[in-house]
Amino acid sequence: MIVNLESTYLEPLAQFESRPSDEILVPSVFKENFKSEIYTKVNQLQSTGPKRIGIVFSGGPAPGGHDVLVGILSNLRDGDELIGFIGGFGGVLLGRYFLIDPMDAHFLEGSAGFDYLGTDRTKISTTEHFNTIASLVDDLALDVFMVVGGDDSNTNATYLAKALGTRCQVIGIPKTIDGDLRFGSLLPVSFGFHTATHHYATMVNNLAIDALATEKYFHFIKLMGRSASYVTLEVAYQTFPHACLLSEEVVDSKWRLMDVVDYFSSIVKDRIAMGRPFGVFIFPEGLSEVVPELKAYLDGDDRQLNAFYQSIQCDAPMVFKPLDEDGHGNKNLSALPLERILMDCVVAYVKSLAGINLMAQAHFFGYEGRSCKPTHFDSLYSKLLGKTAYELALSNANGVMVGCEISDNDVRPCGFPLPAMMGYDSVKKRWIIKKSLVDVSQNDYLEYRQQKKSWVSTDPGFPRTNLYDYPKCVVFN
What we know:
seven-stranded mixed beta sheet, four-stranded parallel beta sheet
């Protein structure tokens, strides 16, 4: 069921068919015994004729994208075809595509990147866009159009499902390393999140071990993560950084830049007092959107930030440089040197207070996490999502997102209506799929707040702590 997106009210999920496909294939196990041959049919699929399926990668890359293709290719029936669109929705509008050979699955499985198809961040929003895609759907005789993407891309998918109506099924497949595309127990995590955070955690841990060996350098580490701080929270759980801030934490505390700098500076002074003049500090790039002085800078006003620099005797004034925006209005936060800004401010502030000259380094861990070889979890999970998308297609589901309920003992792939994820954005004046943020009232956040106090004095030891095989900050009901 596709709801009217112009309405001011979306019926709750209970009013939809929350599992429009009871005919999908269900794995019998997922964790320790999770293997590639995990599927058992529970019902006869509705579709008997061949399916011609188009698929597009959209938005930022995420580890596991190629395994989604494998999950589809490995299960195609005789007569079924999978057409890949090249270069994201921009490539769709240009009519760039090719017929994917099912034999390609053998080298795609477990491979890193999104480069087999490519991707972009084109926003589908105009009548011309929808008409172009509708004509292409007709020309290629597509039965199904699959969108592999995050919240913005699947917002595209939702509107596309409405525009295409019954002429072509539209199915969304959840992708984002940010971990902010969630929908209760039906979608606890998107693919790519575990691999990216595993990679970042490895690098953060390496810096902590190096700092301990040499007993020098405070490392200021910016991690990817725009509005939601799930990436930073997951890395924190895995590495026990000496200092950590989440965007949601700053908002909840109503902190300004002085509060942020004072927090990191206090940890520096505490570590030095312990005889440990080194440490690792982590934070998300999205911090710049919630700290007032930094937000003003993003909006084109550098006066507040430079006034703060002067107040702490920091000799590094910022000259405003506008950041590029994508088609969805998202600024390229990765281009803002937040890690350098915070490091310079803390170095200057500690020197003004205590006369201490800090040895510090600034780092940004981001793009490399999007192109890693997927972890075992993400590889298997992505194949499952791809297979589920294919089974939803055979079940004639339309306008749905692929989901997956996960528990300690079982996994239940499912599909639920894309509009159920949507909310009205009063700024963009548009119905969009809203990002899921870290909930400061939930146990994973409260546990983090409690534990981070002890991390100030915690350094790597022996035996080494193993990184998690499954996402720690995702609750599997």
